[in-house]
Write a structure and sequence with these properties.
Layout: H1 2-7, H2 14-20, H3 30-35, H4 44-55, H5 60-72, E1 98-102, E2 105-108, H6 142-150, E3 157-160, H7 170-177, E4 188-193, H8 195-198, H9 209-221, E5 225-231, H10 241-251, E6 256-263, H11 271-283, E7 287-293, H12 300-303, H13 307-318, E8 329-335, E9 338-348, E10 351-361, E11 370-374
Parallel strand pairs: 2-3, 3-4, 4-5, 5-6, 6-7, 7-8
Antiparallel strand pairs: 1-2, 8-9, 9-10, 10-11
Length: 413
């Protein structure tokens, strides 16, 4: 476990340890597996090598060099985050701590929010937390963010992300949020957080809990939508009364809580888990939003669920909840070309295929248009898929001369 934690970030707090983990069920308890590194999360050769270094009393420099070699093979920044998502100034200088992948939404990584109350073992942003400045997104320059959003009227929402922005105190987070409230074309402020699950005290008993709620009220009073993007991975995270009280208090400000999580092997790869989670969220006034597919980074091989199985898990849960929970979308892959949803498996012209569509895309022309890919029971990510039905390329790929993509032309149906 220590060898894996030398490569991947490990952090857990007293609330998770005391209130969420059933220690009689460990190591099979889902919350235990959610936060404690497992020995088989990384290739055995890598684990053995670092274990040997730890036993021999190797220096911190030696351990870091070995860990960095492993990290480099784990695709630390997937989906073009470093190369394709970072906007530039008029002088072609990258704007630190900002990503702009889809025209409507800008992501901002506040410097003081680039850690979490506890770390999820499957986190796709693990590279933020390993101490390598070259792998980290962060900025404290709110003026640059405001100037950028003002000059891009197509931007209608700003998402504060991390890490976890709610690790910051009210006095800090308000300095980031309040200047944005004066931008007329901005419609929504989003906060991506797992604080409701990992530290609900942040909204109930922490010294600045009430001040934080007043800030939320100020956002809503300004005419902006405050979307609280809450990360819940398992229904057990909703059991404590404290988290239920935190949800009530956040909702009382006028904020809308939308819930999302990835589908993770050994933690929530069961339709009954998702059914229970979505129904619990609706009961407490939250809106189920996304079931994600584990991204192609970090220990993906350990946690990933094949797309065919993911679809069956999603469908198994979806068919057992009411329409109020069917706001959820998935299984969805946040990949380089965009957010791609697996809509189903069917047979067309005698060929078994996946049916998919873009929920969001770098190329807006792709949004909402269905396409097909060959059925592959082992495929676990978008780039594992191949064109179907005679297509020579998938919709986002550069076509060969005279090639056809897998998009559906409604006039031919």
């Amino acid at each position: 476990m220590q060898a894996v934690a030398t490569v991947l970030p490990f952090r857990v707090n007293s609330y998770v340890v005391d209130e969420l983990i059933d220690w009689d069920a460990a190591p099979d308890d889902p919350i235990y597996r959610l936060v404690f590194p497992q020995a088989d999360m990384l290739p055995q050769d890598d684990v053995s090598r670092i274990s040997d270094l730890l036993r021999s009393g190797a220096s911190r420099k030696e351990l870091n060099e070995a860990a960095n070699q492993v990290r480099a093979r784990l695709n630390p920044h997937p989906a073009g985050q470093m190369d394709l998502n970072v906007p530039k100034t008029g002088n072609e200088e990258p704007i630190p701590g900002v990503q702009h992948k889809y025209k409507e939404t800008v992501l901002f990584f506040p410097k003081q929010g680039q850690t979490c109350h506890a770390y999820c073992t499957y986190c796709f942003r693990w590279a933020q937390f390993v101490g390598d400045a070259d792998l980290k997104f962060a900025s404290s320059e709110i003026d640059q963010l405001v100037e950028y959003v003002r000059s891009h009227p197509e931007v209608t929402s700003v998402l504060f992300t991390g890490g976890d922005p709610m690790i910051m105190g009210e006095g800090v987070i308000s300095k980031y949020i309040e200047p944005l409230l004066e931008i007329e074309h901005l419609e929504a402020i989003r906060i991506g957080t797992k604080a409701l699950a990992y530290w609900p005290q942040r909204f109930v008993t922490d010294p600045d809990a009430d001040d934080t709620l007043r800030l939320f009220e100020k956002v809503v009073a300004s005419g902006k939508n405050l979307a609280f993007m809450a990360h819940f991975s398992h229904p057990n995270e909703m059991r404590p009364e404290l988290v239920q009280e935190a949800v009530r208090r956040v909702r009382s400000t006028g904020a809308v809580i939308r819930t999302q999580a990835p589908l993770i092997r050994t933690i929530n790869d069961d339709p009954a888990v998702w059914e229970s989670m979505w129904r619990t969220h609706v009961r407490h006034g939250m809106v189920p939003y996304y079931m994600f597919v584990e991204r192609d980074t970090g220990p993906q091989d350990y946690f990933a669920v094949p797309l065919a199985e993911a679809y069956e898990i999603f469908r198994g849960a979806y068919q057992k909840v009411s329409g109020l929970a069917r706001t959820v979308r998935g299984p969805s892959m946040s990949a380089t070309p965009g957010k791609v949803c697996v809509d189903g498996v069917t047979e067309v012209a005698g060929e078994k295929v996946f049916v998919l569509h873009f929920i969001q895309a770098r190329d807006p022309e792709l949004v909402g248009r269905p396409f097909f890919a060959e059925y592959d029971e082992k495929a676990a990510w978008l780039f594992d898929l191949k064109p179907a039905l005679g297509a020579t390329h998938l919709p986002w790929e550069v076509p060969p001369t005279g090639g056809t993509d897998g998009l559906v032309d409604p006039t031919r149906l």
